[in-house]
Amino acid sequence: MTPSAPDTPFVPDDFTVPRRLETAAFRLEPLAPRHNASDHAAWMSGIEHIRTTPGFEGRGWPPVDGMSLEANLADLERHAADFERRTGFTYTVLATGDRTGSAADGDPAGDSGAGAGDAGAGDAGDAGAADTGAGAGDAGAGDAGAGTTGDGPGEPGAGTEGGSGGRSGGADEVIGCVYIYPLRHASGEDTVPAADAANAAAGAEGVARVSSWVRADRAQLDRPLYEAVSAWLAADWPFTEVRYTAR
C-alpha cells in the first residue's frame, strides 16, 4: 500500500502495545503475512466499497485494478515490520461467527472492558465527514463489551493454531483492517489530506491518524468497528489526539 513508516517509535518505550481487541462480532490481532490470502480476498472483493468508506475517499488505496497476491504479501510484511519497530500498528479484523453486526454485551477477551460508544465528533475530515477528537480517557460509554489483551512475547501475528494456517473454519476469515499510524505518515493510502500534511510538518506529536475498512458483505460492521476502536484508543492508548473519520 505505502512505504514503511518512519523509524521513530510512535509510542513511548514503556507502553505495552495491545495485541488483541475482541467483541461478539469480530476480533483484532496484528496483521501478519499469514493473513495474506484472506486479506487479499477481503479487499479485492469490494474495492469500490472500500474506496467510498469514510476516510478513504479520494485516496490512492485500494488501487482500482487491484494487485497481485505477491504484492499484497509485500505490503503485509511492511506492516508487520512497522508493528515490530513500534512505528505504526495495523490490525486485521477477523470474524468471530456473529454476522449480525451488533456487538453483544460481555467481555469475551478479558483484561479491560472498553465500551464501544459513540465517539465525540471533532474537526471536519475528508469529504465533509467529521473526525473524532478522542484523547486518552475520553471513550464514550456504550453497550458493547470489547476485551483487550496486552503485548506479549513473539512477533506480530505469531502463535497460530493448527499449523501455519491458523485456526480452522471461519474464525480466521479476514473481514477488515484497522491502521493506526502517526499523523505524519498515512497507511493504506497514497495521499494525506492537506490539513493533516500541514499539521504533520508542524510536528504534531502524539496525534494518531486511524482508518478502517470492512468487506462489502460485512458493511453492517463498519460503524460497530469504528465505535469499538474509538473507545479502545481512548481508554488503552497514549495518544493526545486521534484523527478517525466518523461514521
Give the helices and strands, then pairings:
Layout: E1 20-22, E2 26-30, H1 36-44, H2 47-51, H3 69-85, E3 89-95, E4 112-115, E5 121-124, E6 130-132, E7 145-149, E8 174-182, H4 194-201, E9 207-214, H5 222-236, E10 241-244
Parallel strand pairs: 9-10
Antiparallel strand pairs: 1-2, 1-7, 2-3, 3-8, 4-7, 5-6, 8-9
Helix pairs in contact: 1-3
How would you characterize this protein structure?
The chain has 247 residues and is α+β, with helices and mostly antiparallel strands. It has a single domain, classed as Aminopeptidase. Helices cover 22% and strands 21% of the residues. The chain is built from 5 helices and 10 strands; from the N terminus they run ββαααββββββαβαβ. The strands form 2 sheets. An 8-stranded mixed beta sheet has the order 4-7-1-2-3-8-9-10, sandwiched between helices. A two-stranded antiparallel sheet has the order 5-6. Helix 1 crosses helix 3 (69-85). It is globular, with a radius of gyration of 16 Å. The two termini are 23 Å apart. The model is unreliable at 100-145, 152-169 and 187-203 (pLDDT under 50).
The CATH architecture designation is: 3-Layer(aba) Sandwich
Q: Number of folding domains? A: 1
Mean pLDDT: 73
Q: DSSP helix count?
A: 5
SS class? alpha+beta
| CATH topology description | Aminopeptidase
Quaternary form: single chain
Number of separate strands: 10
Order of helices and strands: EEHHHEEEEEEHEHE
Task: State the end-to-end distance.
Answer: 23 Å
User: Which residue ranges are poorly predicted, with pLDDT under 50 across at least 5 consecutive positions?
Assistant: 100-145, 152-169, 187-203
